[in-house]
Amino acid sequence: MGKVIALANQKGGVGKTTTTINIAAAVAVLGKKVLIIDSDPQANATSGVGVTTEDDQLDIYDLMVHEEDPKLAIVSTETPNLDLIPSSIDLVGAELELASVLQREFRMKKVVDAVKDDYDFIFIDCLPSLGLITINALTAADSVLVPVQCEFFSLEGYGKLKNTISLIQSSINTDLKIEGVVLSMYDKRLRMAKLVVSEVQEHVTDYVFKTIIHRNSKVGEAPSMGQPVIVYDAASKGAINFMNLASELLANNEVD
């Protein structure tokens, strides 16, 4: 049975989708069977792994709103061991369409439960907001991995997300844990970045990953090529960062 990890932060622009794509690909390269669920209607995780959906392709909207078979929506990617359930702009309307549905918070959990035995890890890329889709992702997840950009306002976003997680834990998903905090977009030339790292390491009581994701041009270029950075340029600093992060994640979960 696979572990389900939601990548979430209520602040946008913190590298959440980039982290989702690249940690998932790195874990896959290390030999684990991995699935990405793209739950953002912008579908950046979908395009970021090189998937272009056709009109007849099922996506997470169809699975949550129309309860289609999740296994029919899974798409293979060019990265070995890495599959995807894509998203689409249709997901924008899902919150309204599900508003009057009983147990609407559990629609994504039904999707996950149908496929989790086929994977070692499932990573859910969340919207940068607290709406029904994000609540669905946190309800379906075993844990939350929080990317925090190395700038001051990202710490505020983390505090708000912690409150959201506490609400989910107290009402819907009592087993939800925080997998850890990942410091991303680190630029050693910036004094503020160093201060944020110091503040997080000193004051954040949850686990903070030792691996820090540095700003790297290859990480920025890779999505435009439809590839994770480990495929685009395996020798780049960004690829090495994400391989180290994946190794740390596996070690934390006592996975060989």
Query: End-to-end span in angstroms?
Result: 15 Å
SSE order = EHEHHEEHHEHEHEHHHH
Strand order of the largest sheet: 3-4-2-5-1-6-7
Task: State the share of residues found in helices, binned by percent.
Answer: 40-55%
Summarize the structure.
Helices cover 41% and strands 14% of the residues. It is an alpha/beta fold and 256 residues long.
Describe it:
This protein has 256 residues and is of the alpha/beta class. It has one domain: Rossmann fold, CATH 3.40.50. The chain is built from eleven helices and seven strands.
Please name the defining characteristics of this protein.
single chain; alpha/beta; Rossmann fold
Q: Helices and strands in order, then pairings?
A:
Layout: E1 3-7, H1 16-29, E2 34-38, H2 44-48, H3 60-65, E3 75-76, E4 82-85, H4 94-98, H5 107-115, E5 121-125, H6 132-140, E6 143-149, H7 152-171, E7 177-184, H8 191-203, H9 217-221, H10 229-232, H11 237-252
Helix pairs in contact: 1-11, 5-6
